[in-house]
Amino acid sequence: DHRDLHSFPTRRSSDLRFAAYSRMWRKMDQFNLQLDYYGALNLHKALLEAKFHQNSDNELISVSPVIADIYIQVRDFLIQNDKPKSNHRASCWKEWFELKNRSDYKQHAIILLTKYKRWDQSSLDEKKKITKNCLAPFFFDETELNAIVTEIDQHRKQI
Predict the structure, then answer these.
(1) Rg of the chain's alpha carbons, rounded to an integer?
(2) Inter-CA distances, 55 with 6, 108, 120, Å
(3) What is the pLDDT of residues 10-26, one digit of tens each?
């Protein structure tokens, strides 16, 4: 009976996307990326440009969980291997990656997410995940995250 074929559970497209990302991530684990401090610094600059470019050809780069995870690893490496100048006592990188100290990138992220086509169809939890990915590699707390999501929602209503 043909109805038996339809009784099997099917995968949603989001399940398939997740499975594809999982396979890709396992393949990436095979790469042994060896970077020194200056290699990580250059990768940081490239990722910063790719994620926060205002006229990006691909809006998904800014919100990609894979890019966010890679960038967080680069951030952590830079902080652990910080080479502060002799006139600075504290870690320069840790301070640099505090979102409260980077209002320029915060505003870039808000502008990018205001243009993000899938924002209005997303739940609050999804909006938070999207925003976290977009703001990676910066440090911020839940209060800052909620304020940014609210600000983006307000901007979207004005469009």
Answers:
(1) 19
(2) 45, 11, 21
(3) 445 445 555 555 555 55
